[in-house]
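REQUEST FORM: STRUCTURE PREDICTION
Request ID: SP-0412
Submitted by: Lab K.M.
Chain count: 1
Length (residues): 191
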Amino acid sequence: MQADRGLPVKLLVREVMNSPPITGKADEDAASLAKKMVEFKVGSVVIMDGKEVIGVVTDGDLVNKVVAKGLPPEGARARDVMSSPLHTIEAEKDLTEAARMMRKFGIKRLGVTYKGEVVGMVSMTDILSVTPELLDILSEKARILRGGRGKGGFGVSGYCDTCNQWSDSLMEIDGKFVCEECTGETSKGES
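STATUS: Completed
RESULT:
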């Protein structure tokens, strides 16, 4: 059987997480937290009490619990606007599990843990940023399992970029559309 041929079948959370997490203190004001989010280009700040994680303040928390309520950002403290507990996932877990957890809890971010410590954050945006690559991997895997032939984007009609002859089943290889005959020659030349 033509298994995976070295193609990754899953992405791990650690491969897309943002690390280290940006942290703040429970008595820090919302204005300071917002400045950190802008400075570090993140959507959340992990709130710490010493070495213990006690929650997270997200950009959504600032909008919903401070701005929408007309509170002055300098007066709103992290402890009053944070979401708690911080939902977490282990760094070695599959990215699809992270997406499922976010959907289950109705959240957009998870803390990422390694050996019991929060070492980063993963957001829905991080997951979406790798979606095109995942789709490419799945398409390539499906093509391999079908033996390189089949419908669904393969077998395009047109002129071969190698021999300039018409073909009803061109395949895209390295950005070029190549006929079956030239594909065989390309494979032999690469061996």
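NOTES: The CA atoms of residues 10 and 134 lie 8 Å apart.
Reviewed by: T.R.
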